[in-house]
Amino acid sequence: MKRIWDVTRPLAPGIPAWPGDRPYTRGWTARIEDGSPCNVGEFAMSCHTGTHVDAPFHIAATGATADQVPLQACLGPCVVVPLARLAEAAGAERVLLRTGGLAPTVSQLAALPGLRLLGTDAASVDREDAADLAVHHALRHRGVVILEGLDLEGVPDGPYELIALPLRLAGMDGAPVRALLREL
Question: Is 79 in contact with 159 (CB distance < 8 Å)?
Answer without folding.
Answer: yes
